[in-house]
């Protein structure tokens, strides 16, 4: 099992741009009721930095490029959603963009292992979330919010199902990815609070902290996405043939005695 120190030493330098852009966002901290091009750029830069991290890590290690591309695509749709949520009147478009991003994440993580009990818990949370906001939901979001909630919690289910506590399958990156998915869901809950129930104290700080933590956790999933080395069929057949020939010779020698 790889230690936390080893993981940090390996990926830390590649995450420096993310933490720098994150610091800039929170230092400048343009209020969400003041939409501007600068606010859009500052909000999206940390996610772009995570995309760069994934690209650098994939090129320098044996990371599965297909998996990495899917995670990048999910993050880019999230980035578009970020930009949409800044501007009034584009909330529905932002939700749709995040929905597509989550579907890509689900496709990337797959459904093995299934871990159905975790899925049941996640869907129960989705239903409770929808019921909590239902009195305030109107128009197209009457369909959009339930659909988005199910997709979001399916993503959480798939990242949580990857966490295996047996010694041979445990990794810190899988745990961080799980926590990232949960953090993303928490962020979206507070987005719903802000949108449907009105702003609350420290709303932007809470929403963005949990959101960036969620995307960071999902980005770290590439640490476990190794390319599986295919079996060399010719070599395998040759070894089998050689083994069979040897066994035959030994049998003949034994019978001749």
From TrEMBL:
GO cellular component: membrane
Enzyme class: hydrolase
Entry keywords, A to Z: Membrane, Transmembrane, Transmembrane helix
Entry keyword annotation includes Transport: no
Transmembrane segments: 12-30, 36-56, 68-88, 94-111, 116-134, 140-160, 172-193, 205-225
Record's compositionally biased regions (Polar residues): 241-257
Reaction catalyzed: a 1-O-(1Z-alkenyl)-sn-glycero-3-phosphocholine + H2O = a 2,3-saturated aldehyde + sn-glycerol 3-phosphocholine; a 1-O-(1Z-alkenyl)-sn-glycero-3-phosphoethanolamine + H2O = a 2,3-saturated aldehyde + sn-glycero-3-phosphoethanolamine
The protein's name in its UniProt record: lysoplasmalogenase
Source organism of the structure: Ignelater luminosus
Taxonomic classification: Eukaryota, Metazoa, Ecdysozoa, Arthropoda, Hexapoda
